[in-house]
């Protein structure tokens, strides 16, 4: 447990990208209410995830982390949760089948509501209002009342997170994730994509393997790993009043855990020395992710690791690189070398989304699929060259048939972006593009495995 730490100690540090609430009394009331609510997740679950990530850090697994850029109140529907969950299941099956290693599944779900913005206000004509910081803080409609920072939105976000978690637990353990259902996971719009047939062929092979096991006397119904799956949740720990209110001391160990999610991460904009967000996260026992981009120097990264994981606990830290397709091979190696030289046990994961946003001629923000794929390829190339494990992927995606990222085998064009552009924040990969990315990564994982076998020979 971190020394000299309290859940509210972050208030003495510099807090960037936190909303200013006009009604301090109402904020205190909401915080007190949240503090009385039951935890959304349990400390033991966070420890299980940490164990799984420790295996990934040792090169014996892969982290798949994905979900919405920002969850919204308006799009909250069980079908949307189910569709994102099953695309993540499909991706995990593709990656497991290729790598012959376990895939740790973590959703950007059940809490990913708050978003940092580059400017505190935005202007339309002569009207200047607070920027939209996510549904947990204010509303997306551009009017004074909706853009008012309202602490009571935290209560609605908690309620939606609880309902989402309840459904995810049911899907993961209630039979939906049974490998016998693998053919039923495919959505219609994915089935129509060029990768739908490839997934169907792989599903046939999995079915044959299960039939073979049954013929040999191994009853798949008695193997828990074939009946369900472990699925964890994560979000950026940005809105610290919410995170503090859901922080609990574990009755078994006495350690503090942020019980709003299994895993939390700190973004590029709040990752600095003296940061309130760093101070908060150093004291909770959850697995922690940290975004690493072009602005981060090796010495600063090592100091952050010493602050957030002084005991060098395996599975505690996941470093999420986000450079851009044309910068990853130049910028990432120095960070990898520094961490390797110091012996920090980390999971290296790739965020190929945030460094590849462009403005299309149509005016929409988009992310070209080819740039996303090229950053992933560059990430794997760096780790092959450095002899380290390319351990994960962190993507913004949805199971919905949206048109937000151009390209891919389904060839979404600039002109087609307006057809189904629904995101509340940044553009997301749709289901078909996500499956395509999984198959491309499967090939890269095979290359990594071949390289490791050659080194061992």
Automatic annotation (TrEMBL):
Swiss-Prot/TrEMBL GO biological process terms: aromatic amino acid family biosynthetic process
Keywords: Cadmium, Cobalt, Manganese, Transferase
Record: residues binding Mn(2+): 69, 354, 396, 426
Primary enzyme class: transferase
KW Manganese (keyword) present: yes
A GO term, aspect molecular function: 3-deoxy-7-phosphoheptulonate synthase activity
InterPro entries: Aldolase_TIM, DAHP_synth_2
EC number: 2.5.1.54
The organism's place on the tree of life at top rank: Bacteria
Alphabetized Pfam families for the sequence: DAHP_synth_2
Cofactor note: Binds 1 divalent cation per subunit. The enzyme is active with manganese, cobalt or cadmium ions.
Positions that bind phosphoenolpyruvate: 108, 291, 322
Reaction(s) catalysed (UniProt annotation): D-erythrose 4-phosphate + phosphoenolpyruvate + H2O = 7-phospho-2-dehydro-3-deoxy-D-arabino-heptonate + phosphate
Cofactor(s) needed: Mn(2+); Co(2+); Cd(2+)
Protein family per UniProt: Belongs to the class-II DAHP synthase family.
Name this polypeptide is given: Phospho-2-dehydro-3-deoxyheptonate aldolase
Organism this protein belongs to: Novosphingobium mathurense
């Amino acid at each position: 447990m971190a020394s000299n730490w309290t859940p509210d100690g972050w208030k003495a540090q510099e807090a960037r990208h936190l909303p200013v609430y006009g009604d301090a009394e109402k904020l205190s009331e909401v915080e007190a209410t949240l503090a009385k609510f039951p935890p959304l997740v349990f400390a033991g679950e966070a420890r299980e995830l940490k164990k799984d990530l420790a295996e990934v850090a040792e090169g014996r697994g892969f982290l798949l982390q994905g979900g919405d850029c920002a969850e919204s109140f308006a799009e909250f529907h069980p079908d949307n949760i189910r569709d994102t969950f099953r695309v993540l299941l499909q991706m995990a099956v593709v990656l497991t089948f290729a790598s012959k290693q376990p895939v740790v599944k973590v959703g950007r779900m059940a809490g990913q509501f708050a978003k940092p913005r580059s400017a505190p206000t935005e202007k339309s004509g002569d009207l200047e209002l607070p920027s939209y910081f996510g549904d947990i803080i204010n509303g997306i409609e551009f009017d004074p009342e909706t853009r008012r920072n309202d602490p009571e939105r935290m209560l609605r976000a908690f309620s939606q997170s609880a309902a989402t978690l309840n459904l995810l637990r049911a899907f993961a353990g209630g039979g939906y994730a049974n490998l016998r259902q693998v053919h039923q996971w495919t959505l219609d719009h994915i089935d129509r994509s060029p990768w739908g047939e490839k997934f169907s062929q792989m599903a046939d092979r999995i079915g044959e393997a299960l039939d073979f096991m049954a013929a040999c006397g191994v009853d798949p119904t008695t193997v828990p790993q074939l009946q369900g799956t472990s699925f964890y949740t994560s979000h950026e720990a940005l809105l610290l009043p919410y995170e503090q209110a859901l922080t609990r001391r574990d009755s078994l160990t006495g350690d503090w855990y942020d019980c709003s999610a299994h895993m939390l991460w700190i973004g590029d904009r709040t990752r600095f020395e003296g940061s309130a967000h760093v101070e908060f996260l150093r004291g909770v026992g959850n697995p922690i992710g940290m975004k690493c981009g072009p602005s981060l120097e090796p010495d600063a990264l090592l100091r952050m690791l010493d602050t957030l994981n002084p005991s060098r606990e395996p599975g505690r830290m996941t470093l999420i690189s986000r450079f851009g397709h044309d910068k990853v091979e130049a910028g990432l190696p120095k960070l990898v070398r520094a961490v390797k030289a110091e012996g920090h046990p980390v999971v290296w994961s790739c965020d190929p989304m945030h460094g590849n946003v462009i403005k299309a001629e149509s005016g929409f923000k988009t992310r070209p699929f080819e740039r996303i794929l090229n950053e992933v390829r560059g990430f794997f190339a760096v780790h092959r060259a450095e002899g380290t494990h390319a351990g994960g992927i962190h993507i913004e995606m949805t199971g919905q048939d949206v048109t937000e990222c151009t390209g891919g085998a389904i060839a979404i064009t600039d002109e087609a972006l307006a057809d189904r552009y629904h995101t509340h924040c940044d553009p997301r990969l749709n289901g078909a593009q996500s499956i395509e990315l999984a198959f491309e990564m499967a090939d890269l994982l095979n290359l990594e495995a071949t390289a490791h076998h050659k080194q061992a020979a």
